[in-house]
Amino acid sequence: METYTVTGFENDGTLVLNEMFEASDNQSAKIKGLDMLRAAGHEHKGARIVHQGQLIYFERCKLPGKLKGTAS
């Protein structure tokens, strides 16, 4: 088993979940990490799952409206 970290965050960058867990491979870790986010009620927030510095999963925050300085 390998150790992974799931992190969930609000639009302003505030951490809402930051937990380590074990999984047998990257695909299992992604499923388990997303389940942890769902169970904590943070399914539709920014999130990442990492393993030894490698990004396994990333979801951007859902910012309302248009961001300054970005193309539309």
UniProtKB/TrEMBL annotation:
This is YhzD family protein. It comes from Exiguobacterium marinum. It holds the Pfam family YhzD. InterPro entries: YhzD. It comes from the Bacteria.
